[in-house]
């Protein structure tokens, strides 16, 4: 693979954002793969790739990417919430509940609090 410039990586990242918004998650993943190959520490690119995997119904890769993000940023409420949605979609509700609750504790957005189910007695 030829050497990539920082500008090329940024262009690919922005293009991946647009592809995801345009409902082409597989195209977004393809662009992000090359960005992450050069910058594996880039949490923003990993979070975007996790979202793209989720949108493409590739739940295991999405889960792994969200976990990498959370290893680096354990206080990332969105990553906890998105991981919870991923686990919920995979019918792993007990694991999902933990991450919904962490998301709500870190950031009490109404959507996070509602998903956490604090009022359901579980």
From TrEMBL:
InterPro entries for this protein: TPR-like_helical_dom_sf, TPR_2, TPR_rpt
SUPFAM superfamilies: TPR-like
Gene3D superfamilies to which the protein is assigned, alphabetical: Tetratricopeptide repeat domain
Domain of life: Bacteria
Keywords: Repeat, TPR repeat
Protein name per its UniProtKB record: Tetratricopeptide repeat protein
Protein species of origin: Streptomyces humicola
